[in-house]
Design brief:
- The protein has 805 residues and is an alpha+beta fold.
- Helix content is 55%, strand content 11%.
- It has 28 helices and 20 strands.
- Strands 2-1-4-5-6 form a 5-stranded antiparallel beta sheet, covered by helices on one side. A 5-stranded parallel beta sheet has the order 7-13-14-3-15, with helices on both faces.
- Helix 11 runs antiparallel to helix 18 and helix 15 crosses helix 16.
- The radius of gyration is 41 Å and the shape is elongated.
């Protein structure tokens, strides 16, 4: 459905009602930067994107972007409104309240929110940014254009569900707990299965509990047995003067002898599992060494921290990734962090496991140092120093337990083993004089406690199995969706690549840059990149060889191709200043591109380039295109204003009050551009000049030839017969006189008066108007004349003879 008009009131740069009226045709709009062109683009995006404008999403625009979308000087008794009138006279129209909320005033049968915003609107910065994006960034940008964004949302939601299950179930934490249970199980029960462990627990229970014949579940048996064993241990501790057993079970017992206290401290040391922790750390290191580059530990820490604040970032901003340093938009940054987390999840698990055991090793070292400093071990401690363990004790004294958490290399582990483990072994040896009864109590209690954890672990094992099965199932679905995305992407990319190459050939004819195409890299799941052949050499990226202008030209081809790709909606195409970086030669080929590829599509093209606007006005078919110019912006109260002319002389008039000389100079520049285009269309013959002078002729040189040839070439039909268009020739002569005198003075001095500048502008504008028919409003070059070697306007009222001779 084509657009008749876009209507604004107090929206963005608009004040009272202002309308862009293509009247269902394509349209070119010229206006200086800041004149309000993009307000119309923003209005379309607001309606299509359900109240959001991407480039205005930042911390200052407000939750509903109210501080950005409403004219800053809107009167309190007025409302901000915007709407689009369509070819069937239906209209969508919304009113925006001061808080940014909107209400629908009118709606059409066609829901324009179904338009693909990425295919409908294209701004210059999007062209440039796309080419410089990462492969993942290109993937995010192009997926909506390929029509696969919904599938990507499904895949991402599945990934988030999997991530949420892991988080809510505390999978990593419980997995670590289960691994610790298995380690203890292997120490006490070796390879016994669950039934054997339960029988072992039952036998110990029967040995200590009177109700040994009652039927209880294994956990109850463990609890009852532990209570009875604790009673016996406490009884031994208090009655014996020779020993106290298992000090980590007895936290505070008054009245202990020195020998009992000594046993407590030594047993505490002997029970430290430092050797096991070292084994676990080495196991985690083995997994990390194969996959992690230097400094990955720091990167992983940063990445984990990044997850905490990424959701607080404002959409539309850019942020430098603290893990890799790249500058990435917030939307892509979230995806970037998620992608990096996904790829590093296994590494993260190994890393977390290593950290956990480094922490335990650190805590165990602290406990060792604490016990070695106790009064009851002074004699034992001194014996170690005086004996063969002096170096070991010296190492422990110098060891900072907190340093173990931060950084502990393999060399550090080796030194730790050599120095610390012998001390623990000695403590274990010195606790062997505990009576057999006490030893059995210790063994039975440890068996019961580990048995209890194994029994509980059986349920934990089933729980983890269910969680892992669910995650595996969801991951499998996600993988299936991503495979479908990849398959569809390949099919779509092949079609789009053909269109990209075709458009590239139009913009860059006869250039040795071929096979321009999109492709999916094999090594990355969510990525798209651009390949090409540069003078016979295949290139994986345009950034390797193409200039900035060529890269932007390529980006334009990609987006224009996407706008035609499987587009079921007859949505218009808005191009906002998309040729800023293109040189004149390639910029000029866009006319051919529009005529060949977008003949059936409504295109709204906005530009601040006066010369290119003049080219478009001369070259595009005026039966299909509307040309309008905006006046320079003055204030929010006045707002966006259309010029009554389709030329750009209002740019010059904007300087009349403050700088008449600038007004006169702009008038001269406009005539330079306009007359050069007209001379090219009429094929005016001019003397050849060397080098760049041939392409830099001024208005006076063109006017001389127009005036000279005009007496026999420039004709108007009067009473059915053609005669010299003397009125037009006189207007050209008057313009030439003022350009030579006042315009040149405006360009080189500062003493042009305002009345002079006004007359110069009006005279030049009048002179140019004679090249357009007063009846049909078409240019004199619009059509071939039935008479050979002549061009004429649409109705044949004026013509230029010999223009093609």
């Amino acid at each position: 459905m084509r657009i008749k008009s876009i209507n604004l009131s107090w929206f963005r740069g608009a004040s009272e009602n202002v309308s862009l009226i293509p009247d269902c045709k394509s349209m070119v709009v010229y206006g200086l930067n800041g004149s309000g062109k993009s307000s119309f683009i923003d209005a379309v995006e607001y309606l299509v994107n359900k109240g959001k404008i991407g480039h205005l999403s930042h911390e200052y625009s407000g939750a509903r972007q109210q501080t950005a979308i409403i004219n800053t000087h809107k009167p309190s008794n007025c409302t901000a409104e915007l709407g689009i009138l369509f070819s069937d006279n239906s209209e969508t129209k919304v009113e925006i309240a001061n808080d940014g909320s909107s209400s629908i005033l009118k709606s059409v049968s066609v829901d324009i929110s179904s338009w693909n915003c990425k295919r409908t609107l294209l701004r210059q910065d999007e062209v440039s940014n796309f080419i410089h994006e990462t492969k993942g960034g290109k993937y995010s940008a192009l997926l909506p254009l390929l029509g696969l964004h919904d599938l990507e949302i499904i895949a991402e939601n599945l990934r988030q569900v999997s991530k949420s299950i892991k988080l809510q179930s505390q999978l990593d934490k419980k997995t670590t707990q289960f691994e610790e249970i298995i380690t203890k199980k292997e120490e006490i029960f070796n390879q016994d299965n669950f039934e054997q462990i339960a029988n072992n627990v039952k036998n110990i229970h029967n040995a200590y509990c009177e109700d040994s014949k009652s039927e209880k579940n294994p956990l109850d048996l463990c609890r009852d047995a532990r209570k009875e064993i604790d009673k016996k241990i406490n009884g031994l501790s208090l009655s014996s003067s020779r020993f106290v057993v298992v000090p980590h079970y007895i936290h505070e017992i008054n009245g202990l002898s020195e020998e009992q206290k000594r046993h407590i401290a030594l047993t505490s040391i002997s029970n430290l599992k430092l050797k096991q922790y070292i084994k676990k750390i080495r196991s985690a290191n083995a997994k990390l060494v194969a996959t992690v580059e230097p400094l990955i530990s720091e990167k992983l820490e940063v990445l984990k921290s990044t997850v905490l604040f990424v959701d607080k970032l404002i959409e539309g901003d850019k942020v430098d990734c603290p893990a890799c340093g790249r500058s990435i938009s917030v939307d892509n940054f979230r995806e970037h962090v998620n992608s990096e987390q996904s790829k590093l999840q296994e590494i993260l698990n190994s890393y977390d496991l290593k950290k956990s055991y480094l922490g335990k090793l650190s805590d165990g070292t602290k406990l060792l140092k604490t016990n070695l400093d106790k009064d009851e071990l002074k004699k034992w401690h001194k014996n170690l120093i005086d004996g063969e363990y002096s170096i070991n004790i010296e190492y422990v004294d110098k060891l900072n337990a907190e340093d173990i958490r931060k950084k502990f290399s393999e060399e550090d582990l080796v030194n730790f083993e050599k120095s610390v483990l012998p001390i623990i072994a000695t403590a274990s040896t010195d606790t062997k004089d505990i009576p057999a009864e006490a030893k059995q109590l210790v063994k039975d209690k440890e068996t019961i406690e580990v048995g209890e954890s194994v029994i509980k672990g059986e349920e934990l094992s089933k729980y983890l199995a269910r969680i892992n099965a669910l995650i595996t199932f969801i991951d499998k679905i996600e993988h299936g969706v991503r495979s479908e995305i990849k398959n569809r992407s390949k099919s779509s990319i092949d079609k789009v690549s053909s269109s990209i190459q075709s458009m590239w050939n139009i913009l860059h004819p006869d250039e040795e840059i071929e096979d321009v195409h999109l492709y999916l890299p094999d090594d990355i799941e969510k990525a798209i990149d651009i390949g090409l052949t540069f003078y016979g050499v295949e290139q994986e990226s345009p950034r390797l060889t193409l200039s900035e202008s060529y890269r932007n030209s390529l980006g334009l081809c990609i987006f224009l191709s996407m706008s035609l790709h499987e587009d079921d909606n007859d949505s218009p195409l808005f191009l906002d200043d998309v040729v800023v970086s293109l040189d004149r030669n390639h910029r000029g080929m866009i006319v051919e591109l529009l005529e060949k590829k977008f003949k059936e599509k409504q295109v709204i093209l906005l530009t601040h380039d006066r010369e290119w606007y003049t080219e478009l006005r001369q070259q595009l078919d005026q039966k299909d295109w509307v040309f309008r110019t905006l006046m320079p912006y003055e204030s929010p109260e006045i707002g966006i204003r259309w010029s009554q002319k389709d030329t750009s002389f209002d740019d010059a008039r904007a300087h009349l009050d403050n700088r008449p000389d600038s007004a006169g100079n702009d008038a001269r520049k406009i005539m330079d551009i306009e007359l050069s285009m007209i001379a090219e269309r009429l094929q005016i013959k001019l003397p050849y000049l060397r080098a760049h002078k041939n392409d830099r002729r001024l208005a006076h040189e063109f006017l001389e030839r127009f005036i000279s040839d005009g007496n026999k070439c420039f004709q108007i039909k009067v009473n059915g017969k053609f005669e010299p268009f003397t009125k037009a020739i006189d207007a050209l002569i008057n313009a030439d006189k003022l350009l030579i005198s006042w315009a040149n003075r405006s360009s080189h001095t500062f003493d042009t008066a305002k009345p002079e500048a006004i007359k110069l502008i009006n005279t030049c504008e009048t002179a140019l108007s004679f090249f357009y028919c007063p009846e049909c409003k078409k240019g004199i070059w619009y059509a071939d004349s039935p008479t050979a070697k002549a061009v004429q306007c649409h109705c044949g009222q004026i013509r230029w003879r010999y223009g093609k001779g």
